[in-house]
Amino acid sequence: MLTYSEVCNDTNDSEWLSFIEEVYPWIDTTLFRLKLEAHESASWRGHTLEWQDNSGYRATGTCTKCGKQVVCLTRPAPNQIDIGGEAVGLNCREEN
Is the pTM here over 0.85, yes or no? Predict the structure, then answer.
């Protein structure tokens, strides 16, 4: 089975998402889409994210180089946002 990081590194994100929606139409791809967007933003800032196993409406990623995090929420509270965290807002500063 492919891991999320293998998918992002080896396959065009939109092609992979289209494949999932075609083969597995019952899967809610909202969280997957948020993770792709967060991964793209964090990668642009130099982060290498490792995703933790979370619930069906929340995912947390941590940069393996500096420890900054990103959180994706499919059901944010009125005072929250769907993608947030230092990994999508600040550049990576390798501390290892």
Answer: no
